[in-house]
Structure prediction request, 227 residues.
Amino acid sequence: SQTIHQWPATLVQPVGSPLSLECTVEGTSNPNLYWYRQAAGRGLQLLFYSVGIGQISSEVPQNLSASRPQDRQFILSSKKLLLSDSGFYLCASPNLGNTEAFFGQGTRLTVV
Amino acid sequence: AQSVTQLDSQVPVFEEAPVELRCNYSSSVSVYLFWYVQYPNQGLQLLLKYLSGSTLVKGINGFEAEFNKSQTSFHLRKPSVHISDTAEYFCAVIRRRGGYQKVTFGTGTKLQVIP
Prediction:
């Protein structure tokens, strides 16, 4: 089955600093990849999804961007963090047939 | 479009008592249904899923859920909870089609088991 690796696990960054969160997938090829953000009391919000290398779709306008430089690598970035970017970020990927979604362990981002 | 509603944001329950976490969904097409559990500062772990067949689905840790098509519900139940069940639980749906499909989550229910 697929395994999602996500790092770092926790991150404290000052307002205005850049961000780079990385997600890699094992056990599959050409996966669909998602970035979700979980803010307190707001459930899981889909930020970006990618169906292939260089293909990124954004679900909501925001201060963040995503890139997919390799088949099994998905990166979430920001040039200048805002306080509102704080939250728990999860990378996910469904299996073929969409009968299950696998998640990374998440990154707790605190912008101070 | 599809949506998922978890009406209860928090559910306190005494240890060894039964619990039901409610989930209702809306979708114009057939969907797969899931329950995930999230322990503090961790990712999501699949508890159980309904793809087809029997409407009563059994998952890990003694949890089960029943798919009710007429009521568009997929409530999660456990007859006797443990302290270790304290976590946040997410209901989710995904359309029954190949290719890219967005997983839609509910806002989550925090289960607090009281000793």
